[in-house]
């Protein structure tokens, strides 16, 4: 584990202990707000560490008046469950991937359209600019307030059978996908069979042959051990779906304007911190993969992949034409 992240975990645990002592051992006034923050990754993961950083900033700026308790490792439920609980006001802050949010806010599908982003810089330019801000604003209709975007890298295909350099190589493969319709349609368009499966079941699925491959970022391929049973990783970067920080609209409306601004500021300042951790996380994963003797395929022509998945735009891009055009123009 990264030494800096380990240090931050220790600091966070001391931070939690201090807050508990302050609340229950000193007789002092309870904090005005105690906010629950959910993440389905472990405490050391960059997204969870982003929430921890938010918590530390808010505690420091308000002298403990606003307190954020981070619940990692899906303690409060799966992403689908925590989104619903956030809408209900049972969870205050929630870090999830954009894909499951598209099930309730279809406009966010624009982030999941295949090959729409050509690079990490292109993605950042979009989510940090007017397009990203406008899409966050769309979430209020669904009982959510968008605070910002974290990185989750690019999603690419990995499998146990053979190197993939063209859509032809994917034919006949059963590929695990997230439980989001658009992801299944991308895999189908490329000639493979989409197989929705919980992320926690992927290793066993690969090991037993229930699936032949999956698609995810480098850290997920490595940290969950998938590379041990699926050694071929093709860097096609078919989607670069960001992570999104959500706040319950129901709770947001109970918070005064001054504190809302502090929460928004803490979220904004946590973004570059999380992105730095993410870049380090990716480099460590790649190094481990190379040491393990895996095959990372980079020399591919993406044009056949783009052409094959154009049908996905016809189905999932309807009504999003202006966003699609703006995103494509942003690469210039």
Radius of gyration: 20 Å
Largest sheet features: 5 strands, mixed
The largest sheet has its strands arranged as 2-1-3-10-4
CATH superfamily of the largest domain: Bacterial extracellular solute-binding protein, family 7
Instruction: Output mean pLDDT.
Output: 92
The top level CATH class name of the largest domain: Alpha Beta
Tell me the CATH architecture of the largest domain. Answer: 3-Layer(aba) Sandwich
Runs with pLDDT <50, length 5+? 17-28
Strand content: 15-25%
Query: What sort of overall outline do the alpha carbons produce when their principal axes are compared?
Result: globular
> What count of domains describes the coordinates?
2
Number of helices: 15
* Overall SS class: alpha/beta
Instruction: Tell me the total number of β-strands.
Output: 11
| End-to-end C-alpha gap | 38 Å
CATH fold group of the largest domain = D-Maltodextrin-Binding Protein, domain 2
| SSE topology string | HEHEHEHHHEEHEHEHEHEEHHEHHH
How much helix is in the residues?
A: 40-55%
């Amino acid at each position: 584990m990264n030494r800096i992240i380990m240090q931050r975990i220790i600091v966070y645990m001391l931070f939690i202990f201090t807050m508990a002592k302050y609340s229950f051992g000193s007789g002092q006034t309870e904090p005005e707000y105690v906010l629950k923050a959910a993440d389905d990754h472990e405490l050391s993961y960059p997204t969870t560490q982003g929430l921890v950083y938010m918590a530390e900033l808010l505690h420091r700026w308000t002298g403990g008046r606003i307190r954020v308790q981070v619940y990692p490792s899906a303690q409060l439920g799966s992403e689908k469950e925590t989104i619903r609980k956030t809408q209900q006001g049972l969870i205050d802050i929630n870090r999830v991937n954009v894909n499951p949010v598209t099930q309730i806010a279809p406009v966010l599908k624009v982030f999941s359209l295949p090959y729409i982003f050509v690079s990490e810089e292109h993605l950042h330019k979009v989510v940090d600019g007017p397009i990203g801000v406008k899409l966050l604003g769309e979430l209020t209709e669904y009982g959510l307030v968008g605070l910002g975007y974290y990185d989750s890298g690019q999603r690419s295909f990995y499998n146990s059978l053979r190197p993939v350099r063209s859509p032809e190589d994917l034919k006949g493969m059963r590929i695990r996908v997230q439980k989001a319709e658009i992801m299944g349609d991308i895999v189908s368009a490329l000639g493979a069979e989409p197989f929705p499966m919980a992320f926690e079941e992927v290793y066993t699925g690969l090991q037993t042959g229930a699936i032949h491959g999956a698609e995810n970022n480098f850290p997920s391929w490595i940290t969950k051990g998938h590379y041990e049973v699926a050694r071929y990783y093709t860097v096609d970067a078919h989607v670069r779906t960001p992570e999104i920080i959500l706040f319950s609209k129901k709770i947001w409306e109970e918070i005064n304007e001054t504190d809302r601004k502090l929460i928004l500021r803490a979220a904004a300042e946590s973004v570059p911190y999380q992105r730095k951790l993410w870049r380090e996380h990716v480099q460590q994963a790649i190094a481990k993969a190379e040491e393990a003797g895996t095959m990372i395929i980079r020399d591919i022509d993406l044009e056949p992949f783009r052409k094959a998945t154009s049908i996905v735009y016809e189905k999932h891009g309807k009504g999003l034409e202006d966003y699609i055009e703006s995103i494509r123009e942003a690469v210039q």
